[in-house]
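Dear Dr. L.,

I hope this message finds you well. Following up on our conversation about the binding site, I have prepared a predicted three-dimensional model of the protein together with flavin-adenine dinucleotide. For your records, I am including the exact sequence and ligand specification that went into the calculation, followed by the structure tokens. Please feel free to forward this to your student if that is useful.
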Amino acid sequence: MKMYDLIIIGGGPIGIACGLEAQKKGLDYLIIEKGPIVNSLFHYPSNMQFFSSSEKLEIDEIPFISKEAKPKRDEALEYYRRIVTSNKLAIHLFEKVARVEKQAEIFIIETDKNTYNALNTVVATGFYDLPNKLNVPGEELPKVSHYYDNPHFYASQKLAVVGASNSAVDAALECWRKGSEVSLIIRGPEVGHRVKYWVRPDIINRIDEGSITAYYDTTVKKIRNEELVLNGPKGEITIENDFVLALTGYRPNFDFLEAMGIKLSNDDKRLPQYNPDTMESNVNGLYLAGVICGGMETHKWFIENSRIHAKIIVQAILQRQSIQSDT
Ligand SMILES: Cc1cc2nc3c(=O)[nH]c(=O)nc-3n(C[C@H](O)[C@H](O)[C@H](O)COP(=O)(O)OP(=O)(O)OC[C@H]3O[C@@H](n4cnc5c(N)ncnc54)[C@H](O)[C@@H]3O)c2cc1C
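The resulting structure of the complex is given below.
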């Protein structure tokens, strides 16, 4: 069986950056992605605009030209797709990695289609697959979603948005502007402080003027077909409801990491163990890249500050190879 220098699991922006860097440095690599190119971005809201300006999302200084300073989702899809196609990156799409096992010094990577051997592996699987659930009765109803796409769907409907961070606030504002009757259910006493500084006044003003109803210090207790039961400062209340957008964040697939032997911190953060100088985990030859490095702190790493992981990892692999060939 062919032996790769490097297999990269996940074809998000950071997995792609790793593939491009490996290609530039002459490594025999393969990216394996379970969906289309930059699958997570493909599933972001259709009208979404990045908080970063386009040059901060660039890989390897390849210019990212967008109409406004901060690009839209479709412009990012265009950019990352062109990087893959123009550079003819080695990528297998719609192939899911199920298991990674290390036997002697070789990684055996099993997917739903094939088995591969590699000397090194990079895990760049992001966090967007697993939503943080509300864990309340009724969450399985078809009216409940943990992903938001387009406001048109919710027009003239009673929509409850659960959450207080960027995704929840963006969805609440956009849907209200397209004619939804929006309630915002916030677990804490106020709109989150990490909400973009140019959006926070907008949501606060819409709440203050009564256009959007905010329920602070409130949690969802039960979801029924036409109602929501909330638990707040005045006790239990029931509101009329057609749809629920539970935008309460996402988490990395910790089981997947642990099954490969990666150690996680015992606290709530569940930080994976790695050396920040090389991005190598506690398993030799197994590297971590991108947002996955933050464990439950999914806001800590993003494209802007983790695109550098690609160069660090490829450099570490090259150094390792040169040490091995010297001995
Ligand atoms: C609404 C929103 C707005 C954002 N705006 C910005 C911004 O302005 N600036 C910024 O820097 N960041 C932003 N981010 C964060 C940024 O998108 C993520 O940090 C970034 O996508 C991380 O890249 P990644 O490659 O590490 O992970 P991802 O983009 O999540 O890529 C991981 C990939 O791995 C694949 N995968 C997962 N499991 C497997 C498997 N078992 N086998 C094969 N493939 C697998 C997934 O399909 C996915 O394509 C935003 C995020 C959201 C949700």
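In brief: Helices lie at 13-24, 39-42, 73-86, 166-177, 200-208, 254-259, 303-306, 309-326.

With kind regards,
A. P.
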